[in-house]
Structures are given as structure tokens and as C-alpha cells.
Write a structure and sequence with these properties.
Blueprint lengths: L3 E5 L3 H13 L3 E5 L2 H7 L5 E7 L1 E2 L2 E2 H11 L4 E6 L4 H10 L3 E4 L7 H28 L10 H14 L5 E4 L6 H10 L8 E5 L5 H9 L16 H4 L4 E5 L6 H13 L1 E3 L6 E3 L3 E6 L3 H6 L5 H7 L2 E4 L10 H15 L6 E2 L1 H9 L5 H15 L4 E2 L6 H8 L8 H15 L4 H8 L3 H11 L2
Parallel strand pairs: 1-2, 1-3, 3-6, 6-7, 8-13, 8-14, 9-10, 10-13, 15-16
Antiparallel strand pairs: 4-5, 11-12
Length: 444
């Protein structure tokens, strides 16, 4: 993936010449005549190296180094000057400049210096991304969106995070329940203790019991030595019980005891063990309904539902789809070493029209696939699988008027015919002139 170089230079001819020289080496180049414009361009995270004149109309290039490094520590800065001084060169390096070179005298050195600066900056950017991922992975910064539905959930989660209260997260599959659980733990006083997660639907009841509560040697065939359970592993921290609605009634009784007094027995052991672990539970079931109908212990439900947060499905937070999609595009472009920097407007419209039955997880998977199969820097609708349009047509969660239905079928036909309007008209059973009129009418 080609790196981007920013040239800050107010002399037009020299800036143009330097830009062409660097572009020949395969780099992307952006230009600015002033520090103000250059700093605006640097607000994104695509630029790796800045080549800055020392004398700019609105700033001193040597002093500017410090400001650039404060904005993005991974960016390398090369100072250029027509009137060099030892004092300036020392100060530039002290401020964090990669190098300080003279115009004209050091022209032959520019490309090797740029190559070295890019190599160092790219390495530093990878470290930056890793550190940023670690810092954000478990806190509320990992939860993207500006919709009222999701910001209200984040506000509730932030408030309960500071307590030791048991939390019940409700919502459809793929809405981000584990991310919320991790964020609550990370922003709690237990953040330096373990966060242990288990999906209760992934184990048989007997295996789940031994995983949660541990066992002593000889408790059952194969139990050759004592084993700690996840409650003990999470002591002082947080235990996240995902899909708790799948837990059987016997295990529910054991869990209730832990919630009531913090005690339990390992499997096969009469000795009482004590634990101090916060419980965060999650389910995609209507747990209250299950409890009222005997499928879940009502007393346990009320113990778990001290503080309930319902995570909205993606179809109820449409304004977040583009935000999430662009974030996933950046993630997979970096991960897969692809340069995706444009998204077709119609591609975004189709994403917004989808019912997203699998919610954020499904959106993430769709974006990963289209980034993998894309052949250029722009994501378009032809990268989407045909059954993606079937999901849109079958969406019964919305009231569709005739115009909406017509526009959806026209889009589907155009997708199936790779944009061939003549073939699309035949597929739809309408005249070509009618199709053109409908395309204009619905702004397809």
C-alpha cells in the first residue's frame, strides 16, 4: 500500500517539482502552501511523512515539527531550507524532525531520506495502531455510533460501570453485548482484575457446571486433579455469562447462590468456597417471559435484572450504519493491506436499506468480504452478494409503499445484470423507456 507524503512549501515551482519527483517513486503526494492548510490535511491518519519548508507564510517549519508530532507521533517530518543554520538544524532534530536538509545542495539525498522516513513512519504507525487497539478494545470508545438509541445505552453502561451491580444485557445476536460487558469491566474499579467470558450455549450442562465451578480430583471419570472454575479465575474481577438463557435450572440454582452470598461448591467437593466476582449476563431471549413461563428461574431473573440494558438492533439505529461501515472499511483495508478510500453513494444506500438480521456482526462480515474481493479503491454494489438483495426485499419490519417496492426490484435487476439496462428491462418485463423513467424518478 502506497504511503502518502505531505509537502508544505509556499514556492509553487519548487513544490510542483518536488511533488513530481516523489510521485515517480510510487508515493501519494498531497500539497499545501501554508501550515494552516497542512495541519488541516493532517487531521486524517493517512499521511506518513511531511516535507516542510522552514520558512512558511504562517509558521516556522522547525517549530511546526513539534506540533505535528503532537498531532500524530508516528508521522516523520523532514525540514527543507534554502538558508540553513546549525542552530535551526539542532532545534529541528530536538523537536523530533527526521532530518534537516538544504534545498539544491541535498537534492540527491531527498529520495533516500524520504524512503527511510516512510519506512520508519509505517513501522511506528503499526505500533500506534496496536497500542490504540489495546487501549480502545475494552472501553466505550470501541462502541461506535451517534444515534440516540446507542448513546443512551452507553450512558447507562458508564453509570453502572462505577458500581459492583449485576448487569443484564438484552438484545439480538450481533448487537455487541460482549463489547459492552468488556467496556463496563474496563471502566470499573475491577479493571486490573480478570475479565472472564463464557458462552453458556457452547457447553453441555455437565461440562458447563465444571467449567463454571471447577471440580476436585475424582469427582468424575477423567478428573485426575483439582481444577479451578471460572468463578475462581474471575475472583476480584468480572465474569461475563453470555447466552445465559440456555443455562439449565440446576445450574441456575447454583448461580443464584453465588449471587446471593458469594459461595459455591466445586463439583464433587463438600467444602464451601467464596468468591468476589461481578456478574454480567447477556441473552437474546425475552428472559422475563421465559421466567414467567417456567423456562427460567424467576428469582434468578430478578437477581440478574438489577440493572438491565437493552441493546438496539442495527435496523433501529440506521444513522450509525455508515459510521460502522467506514470504521470496518478502515480496519480491513489496513489488515488486508488494501487501499480502499472511496465508497459509492449507492453502496451506502443499499447498506442502509438492509434489515441487518445479524446486526453489527453481519455488517462487519459483509464489509470484510467486499474489501477482500474489491479490485480498486472504491466499494460499489456489484461487490455485494445477490442474496444480500433478497434480504432487503424480504424485510417485513418496514412498511413499504409501491414506489419503494418498485425501486428495490429495479436495483436488484440492475445488480443481477451488472448494470445492463436493456437486460434489466427484459428481466423486469417492462420497456426500456419505462425503466429509464423509473431510474430517473427514483434517482437510482
Amino acid at each position: 500500500m502506497s504511503s502518502t507524503i505531505l509537502i508544505l512549501e509556499d514556492e509553487n515551482k519548487f513544490r510542483g517539482l518536488l511533488s513530481r519527483i516523489i510521485e515517480v517513486e510510487g508515493y501519494n503526494v498531497v500539497e499545501a502552501q501554508s501550515a494552516r492548510v497542512g495541519l488541516k490535511l493532517l487531521e486524517g491518519d493517512d499521511i506518513r511523512v511531511v516535507i516542510s519548508d522552514v520558512k512558511l507564510p504562517d509558521a516556522n517549519g522547525v517549530e511546526l515539527v513539534k506540533r505535528i508530532k503532537e498531532m500524530h507521533s508516528y508521522v516523520e517530518v523532514i525540514n527543507l531550507t534554502a538558508f540553513g543554520s546549525i542552530k535551526d538544524s539542532v532545534k529541528a532534530i530536538k523537536n523530533g524532525a527526521f532530518d534537516y536538509i538544504m534545498k539544491g545542495d541535498d537534492n540527491a539525498r531527498i529520495i533516500p531520506i524520504v524512503n527511510s522516513a516512510v519506512e520508519k513512519a509505517n513501522l511506528q504507525y503499526q505500533v500506534y495502531q496496536l497500542a490504540n487497539k489495546i487501549n480502545k478494545q475494552y472501553n466505550f470508545d470501541a462502541i461506535l455510533g451517534k444515534s440516540k438509541a446507542i448513546t443512551e445505552c452507553v450512558d447507562l453502561a458508564r453509570k453502572v460501570a462505577k458500581t459492583n451491580t449485576t448487569v443484564l444485557l438484552l438484545g439480538e445476536t450481533g448487537t455487541g453485548k460482549e463489547i459492552f460487558a468488556e467496556a463496563i469491566h474496563k471502566e470499573s474499579d475491577r479493571r486490573n482484575k480478570p475479565f472472564i467470558a463464557i458462552n453458556c450455549s457452547s457447553f453441555s450442562n455437565e461440562l458447563l457446571k465444571s467449567e463454571l465451578f471447577g471440580y476436585v480430583a475424582g469427582a468424575f471419570t477423567g478428573a485426575q486433579k483439582d481444577k479451578k472454575g471460572l468463578f475462581e479465575e474471575a475472583d476480584g474481577g468480572t465474569l461475563f455469562l453470555d447466552e445465559i438463557g440456555e443455562m439449565n435450572l440446576e445450574l441456575q440454582a447454583r448461580l443464584l447462590r453465588v449471587l446471593e452470598n458469594g459461595t459455591f461448591n466445586r463439583v464433587g467437593d463438600s467444602k464451601i468456597s467464596r468468591v468476589n466476582a461481578r456478574i454480567i449476563a447477556a441473552t437474546n431471549k425475552d428472559l422475563k417471559h421465559e421466567a414467567e413461563n417456567g423456562g427460567f428461574r424467576l428469582d434468578l431473573y430478578y437477581r440478574l435484572a438489577v440493572f438491565t440494558i437493552y441493546l438496539p438492533p442495527l435496523r433501529d439505529r440506521k444513522e450509525d450504519i455508515e459510521i460502522l461501515a467506514r470504521s470496518f472499511i478502515r480496519e480491513f483495508s489496513n489488515k488486508l493491506n488494501r487501499k480502499i478510500n472511496k465508497v459509492d453513494d449507492f453502496f451506502l444506500k443499499v447498506l442502509n436499506d438492509s434489515p441487518w438480521k445479524g446486526n453489527v456482526r453481519e455488517l462487519r462480515n459483509v464489509i470484510e468480504r467486499v474489501v477482500i474481493i474489491s479490485n480498486n479503491d472504491t466499494l460499489t454494489t456489484d461487490l455485494l452478494q445477490s442474496d444480500f438483495y433478497n434480504d432487503i426485499a424480504e424485510d417485513t419490519t418496514r412498511t413499504l409503499d409501491l414506489a419503494d417496492i418498485e425501486s428495490r426490484y429495479i436495483r436488484k435487476a440492475l445488480h443481477q445484470t451488472n448494470g445492463n439496462k436493456t437486460e434489466a428491462a427484459k428481466l423486469l418485463g417492462i420497456g426500456l423507456s419505462t425503466l429509464y423513467r423509473k431510474i430517473e424518478e427514483y434517482q437510482i
